[in-house]
Amino acid sequence: MTAEPIPHWPGRMVGSVHVRSTPEGAPERAVFVHGLAGAATNWTDLMDELKDDVTGHAVDLPGAGFSPAPANGDYTIAAHARAVIGLMEETGPAHLFGNSLGGAVSVRVAAQRPDLVRSLTLVSPALPDLLPRYGPVRVAAAATPRLGEWVADRLRFVPAEQRISASFAMVWADMGLVHPVRLHDAVEELRRRDDLPHAAAAMIGSARGIVAEYFRRGEDNLWSQAARVRAPTLIIHGRHDRLVRPAMAAKAGRTFPQVRLVLLPRAGHVAMMEMPGVVAAEARRLIGETRLGNAPLGS
């Protein structure tokens, strides 16, 4: 087993959301957006790898992590995007990173506010797919009216250790590589969230937000938004992703105006957690290209 992992970065409230940040002093800034059932801590190790390149700010989306529930109960992709835009208006223009749900949110942010996004790095982004894998089908079931609430209520009686093990087995290519400290952290965080009155609503609402995007048509469709992204874009997929089909990279390559595609043969759905050094190297390359004014040259 590898050495003891670093502690999670300290957090504070910025407006209506909780944000974990690396120390100031790097030449540029970055904002990191987690996926469904995730939190800012999903980015801890990647932020450590990049701390000399960017001052990192990882957001807990509304209702997730240590962020409070939104007053209006809105967990749509658009609402999450507004929360990220609010943070980026505080940080100033930044390199934007998103995983899964956070990838979908980040695409909308980059399309709507190009002035705030210097580059866009997406790790297994949850973009609409006509042939969803088993994981998204489960998300759709959880998002079904009444069924989602019933499932969430029953899951509370399943031990936190069992729920976390099932979740990690789904998103990591090899769960045996999860450090015991990170596993313990995740279990303790789930126990804390079990006591929050808004936890189930946040999960169900965000799941419904993803499903709604899969059926959205017109110029607000996420693929239409992707075609309007001006920022140089890096998209990373894991070959063993059980939630998002790596084959979606081909459509992304045809859609994003300036894009480089990377397929990691030994990663799953959360490559930034599984192999942060590799993801950091690819992101550092993109940041350097952006600094020099060069667009990604393809995979």
Automatic annotation (TrEMBL):
<dbReference type="InterPro" id="IPR029058">
    <property type="entry name" value="AB_hydrolase_fold"/>
</dbReference>
<dbReference type="GO" id="GO:0003824">
    <property type="term" value="F:catalytic activity"/>
</dbReference>
<dbReference type="Pfam" id="PF00561">
    <property type="entry name" value="Abhydrolase_1"/>
</dbReference>
<protein>
    <submittedName>
        <fullName>Pimeloyl-ACP methyl ester carboxylesterase</fullName>
    </submittedName>
</protein>
<dbReference type="InterPro" id="IPR050228">
    <property type="entry name" value="Carboxylesterase_BioH"/>
</dbReference>
<dbReference type="InterPro" id="IPR000073">
    <property type="entry name" value="AB_hydrolase_1"/>
</dbReference>
<feature type="domain" description="AB hydrolase-1">
    <location>
        <begin position="31"/>
        <end position="274"/>
    </location>
</feature>
